[in-house]
Amino acid sequence: MRIVSLVPSLTLTLFDLGCTAEEVVGRTPWCIHPESMVSEVEVVGGTKTPNLKKILNVKPDLVVLDREENPKAVYDALVEAGIDVFVSSVEHPRDVPHMLRTLGRAIGREEQAESRAKALESLLLELEQMPVPSHRIAPMIWHKPLMSVGPDRYAGGVLTTLGLVVPAFEQGGNGYPVVTPEDLIEHRIEGLLLSSEPHPFALEEGVAIAAQVTALGGQSMWCKCIDGEALTWFGTHTIEGLKTLRLAMM
C-alpha cells in the first residue's frame, strides 16, 4: 500500500504501526518523526496547503487526514480525484484507541494497532484511578495574540485526563480562545502551561503574563514550560505524551 500522510502525529503513528518508507510515500514538512524514516519520504505540501499534483504523482492508495488539522477543501479535492481518504477525528485521549483500530484496519496493521490501543486504554484506566492534586491551569499555545486551548479540544482533554482543570474561556467558540489578563483573573487560574509549539514559549514570556495579572490586582501564578508534542500529538504518541506531562506536573 502507498500512503500519503498530511498529519504529523499520524505520520509517526503509521511508522509506529509498522509501515515503511516504501509505503509512506508523501508527507508534510512538519512530519518530522521518526527522523530516520521521514527523511526518505517526499514532501507534498503543508497541512493546510498540500499540493494535489504532487500527491497524485506519488500514486497513493490512501491519504491520511485529520478533521481539524486539514481543510475540508483538501478532503473534497482528494475525493473528487478518486483517492481513498482516512480522516481522523480526535478530541480527547479516550478517542484515540478507536482511531488506532480504525487506522490499523485501513492500512492492514490490525494486530499492531490493537496492541497500541489496549496499552493506551490501560494507561487511561490507571490515570482515572490515580488521585492527583487539581490545579486550575491555562495551557498557552500562542503569544501574540495570547491564545489558550479549551477543555473540548484534544490538548485540553490530555490535561483534564491528568486531573487538571482547564476552563472554557469562551462558550461556543472554536476551542482556541484569545485570552486576556482579565480572563486569567476571572477564571482563577493558578498556573500557566507554556507549550513549545506552535509558539515556542520561553519561561520569561509566561512570567511577564503573570506579572500583568498581579499588576491588575489578580492572583499570583506559577509558570511551567511543557513539551508541545506531548500536549498535541495524538495517536501512538498519546501514551508518551500523557506520561511526559504527568511527570512534568509532579
Task: Please tell me about this protein's structure.
The protein is of the alpha/beta class and 250 residues long. It contains 11 helices and 8 strands. The chain has helices at residues 8-16, 35-38, 52-57, 72-80, 96-107, 110-128, 154-161, 181-186, 203-215, 228-232, 237-248; strands spanning 3-5, 24-26, 62-66, 85-88, 137-142, 147-148, 191-195, 222-226. The strands form 2 sheets. A 4-stranded parallel beta sheet has the order 2-1-3-4, sandwiched between helices. Strand 1 (3-5), helix 1 and strand 2 (24-26) form a beta-alpha-beta unit. Helix 5 packs antiparallel against helix 6. It starts with a strand and ends with a helix. The model has no long low-confidence stretch (mean pLDDT 96).
Keywords:
single chain, 250 residues, alpha/beta, four-stranded parallel beta sheet, four-stranded mixed beta sheet
Instruction: Please trace the helix and strand order, writing H or E for each element.
Output: EHEHHEHEHHEEHHEHEHH
Count of DSSP H/I helices:
11
Helix content: 40-55%
> What structural category do the secondary elements indicate?
alpha/beta
Low-confidence sequence ranges: none
Distance between the termini: 43 Å
Q: How much strand?
A: 5-15%
Net shape: globular
